[in-house]
Amino acid sequence: MFDPVTYFETLTKTLKLTKDTYHFTQVSGLESLEGIISNRKDHDHFIAVDDSENGALLKISGGYFNRRPITVFICASADYGNPVQRQSLLTEFRKIHKSFVSKLIKDKAIQGLLPFDFTRIPYYEIPGFFADGCVGLYFMFYTDEPTKLIFDAADWTE
Predict the structure, then answer these.
(1) Helix or strand or coil: residue 48?
(2) Predicted TM-score (pTM) above 0.70
(3) Where in the chain does DSSP place strands (E)?
(4) Residue 78 backbone dihedrals phi, psi, to 5 degrees
(5) Which of 133, 145, 146, 143 has the alpha carbon at shortest distance from 40?
(6) What confidence tens digit (pLDDT) does each residue in 62-112 have?
(7) Which 3 state secondary structure label does DSSP give 23?
(8) What is the rounded distance in angstroms from the CA atom of residue 119 to the CA atom of residue 92?
(9) How do the domains of the chain map onto residue ranges?
């Protein structure tokens, strides 16, 4: 099973653009961002992975798969009313996003990572300021993991 938290923590520590500047943390979705907010006093730049377990069961080629979305946030604190700084940060975030995605694609091919759906990898700028003065973007991709979906009559009462 692919562990996005460990994977992106490693990427954050090894990508030259992020390794000395960005703090890695976990969040439970765009609504809370608790890992970012709780670390704002000590850090200004963040890479965060959504560790919540959402997904869907899909039937693909005769078997069932658990499709899980993986969301990665890239953000940093910025001065309110400074559009030049905001644009500069967003440009940096886009570079990080492309570096992470290119590494994912390389690792999928070389290391045989679990099946990923890379047909569409949307990314979104987070509007305005959030998490006590941050600007950022996030991107999403999906992993399809095989799952046994077998009816067992012993699990049911009459």
Answers:
(1) strand
(2) yes
(3) 23-27, 45-50, 56-60, 63-77, 116-117, 123-130, 134-146
(4) -145, 155
(5) 133
(6) 889 888 889 999 999 998 888 899 999 999 999 999 999 999 888 876 655
(7) strand
(8) 24
(9) 4-147
